[in-house]
Amino acid sequence: MNDRQQFGRRLDFEGGRVELAHGAGGKASAQLTAELFAAAFDNPWLNAGNDAAVLALPADLAGGGGRLVLSTDGHVVSPLFFPGGDIGRLAVNGTVNDLAMLGARPLALAAAFILEEGFALAELRRIVASMAAAAREVGVAVATGDTKVVERGQADRVFITTTGVGVVPAGVAPAGDRARPGDVVLVSGTMGDHGVAIMACREGLGFETALESDCAPLNTLVTDMLAVAPDIHVLRDPTRGGLAATLNEIAQQAGVGIVINERALPIRPEVASACALLGLEPLDLANEGKLVAIVAREDAPGLLEVMRRHPRGSNAAIIGEVIADQHRFVQLVTEFGGRRIVGWLSGHPLPRIC
Amino acid sequence: MNDRQQFGRRLDFEGGRVELAHGAGGKASAQLTAELFAAAFDNPWLNAGNDAAVLALPADLAGGGGRLVLSTDGHVVSPLFFPGGDIGRLAVNGTVNDLAMLGARPLALAAAFILEEGFALAELRRIVASMAAAAREVGVAVATGDTKVVERGQADRVFITTTGVGVVPAGVAPAGDRARPGDVVLVSGTMGDHGVAIMACREGLGFETALESDCAPLNTLVTDMLAVAPDIHVLRDPTRGGLAATLNEIAQQAGVGIVINERALPIRPEVASACALLGLEPLDLANEGKLVAIVAREDAPGLLEVMRRHPRGSNAAIIGEVIADQHRFVQLVTEFGGRRIVGWLSGHPLPRIC
Known about the structure:
Largest sheet of chain A: 7 strands, mixed
Structural class of chain A: alpha+beta
CATH superfamily of the largest domain in chain A: PurM-like C-terminal domain
Largest interface: A-B, 101 and 99 residues
CATH architecture of the largest domain in chain A: Alpha-Beta Complex
Helix content of chain A: 25-40%
Shape of chain A: globular
Oligomer: homodimer
Strand order of the largest sheet of chain A: 9-11-8-12-10-13-14
CATH topology of the largest domain in chain A: Phosphoribosyl-aminoimidazole Synthetase, Chain A, domain 2
Strand content of chain A: 15-25%
CATH class of the largest domain in chain A: Alpha Beta
Number of strands of chain A: 14
Number of domains of chain A: 2
Low-confidence stretches of chain A: 1-5
Order of helices and strands of chain A: HHEHEEEHEHEEEHHEHEHEHEEE
């Protein structure tokens, strides 16, 4: 906006609330965009005030060989603020990570807000500030967006859909259907931290040790990994549905079986205790800053070393292998040496975990 | 998905309802994606089953000079089905049109669904089928997506955020800040049809003449327009907030005044009557298949002719001009020759119009 003073009285971020007019497309909408979104996400695309962002094409794409990646995720997590993160940070990192799982670096993000009439502007500002900080950390702009407001009781406070466009370098092509018998399965760190942090928060449990979400961007970890192993077969972030769902998806896509070892799985003791207390299964729990990689056996040792050197991969581990299996089963070798089938979400569904 | 039979019993699209498990990331989520979304949007990106779509770069972009456009819009319209369209068709065309307003042709769409637990699968399927048809009409794929489910009462049935990535040819650069004194303002057809159709539907008014939303894609109209006038200064679709908000936004962005003539404004008689009855102002009402173009005076006659030859522009008209005005006012010359300032959304806000 050329003139920040055009709206008369500024928005009241202390006691103000979201009003239907903020979503009506008139002056109040423009004011919310200018004084909240454009101010926080400060970048030339948003400041231009158009309904879309026009992006220059990066040189490696213009030169040919590169490909674009498009990914979208709705975020409805409850509570909005939790130990280790909030819906805003989750919304940015979730999409950055979806791009990273295709080997892509983020080019720009779009953010669409659905707000409930009466939602406190102070909370909205806190969420938007957190998104802006997360975007700066990654070095990507929230280049365009949209805001809708629905009547009180027709949505729960705030839902955020973030969409990212990214660029994949030539020669990089991780995909779920590329897992092959003999490949090795790695994870970048402890499983279940996000899911347990949210559930503990909801249940009002006060654990002595802090249970925090692992909400974090994985783009630089992936860059380091691709530098030593450009032909990673599969990269996936085990979010909703956890490692269990992710491995089952891959087994289905690739038409293979996967065997993992319980002993090798990195799980924080406090997460294991909380799971026991809440009746949850760590393998079903969402992660928001972890990845699964499936690679040719000869690539695994070098990759593990690089992952462990990265701050987001210090607990990385080789957890299992891909086998030929026409049933496409995911199996767990238990600590006692038995085997069980790992189903898709063997526990009860956990709504609004992300 | 490689194996459509993997889920056992198929989804019940007659009596079934959305369950929390459909959003939990496990087998039920995968089943909804496979049997509903991937089946309807049928394309290689969705069928690949990854969390993002990898898009080959079009030749004109790879050759240099072209730019990418990113646009996102949340859709919360109520009712979900209305004369002339539904939330699905709106979600596709809204984003296609946002891209078109930058002169871009759509490359791919992403769709994120937020569903209320208990929403009928039959209605969801109808909406998704409508999106798929709208996407086919435009020739663009819904290449990636996401589904979240929130508990009953925490959202109103279904919200859809669509995001599009498009390509702008070299030399095309319409933008809100390019309106110049002396430029001419055109609209592509009648104003207010969508807004009145929705409001009439909500109020349960049975008009003798059918009031239909104008919901339609504008991409081919824009292609025809750019062919005769590549240097269109501004292109905007007057959706939420209507023509009044759109012209005020442009006046603010460009630092100019705009004068339009009431006599020249195309408005259907039935829309005018409904507005009188409902206490609405046609200039504030949303359009979902119309555009405003601002061009150099010498380009206007040729452009008008081309617009009128296109099925979506048969009622196109020159409605006013851009003037120098440090106050950045939008003025209406009334039918009686008087002048009044056109404010941003002079009537009451109309929630959930799109």
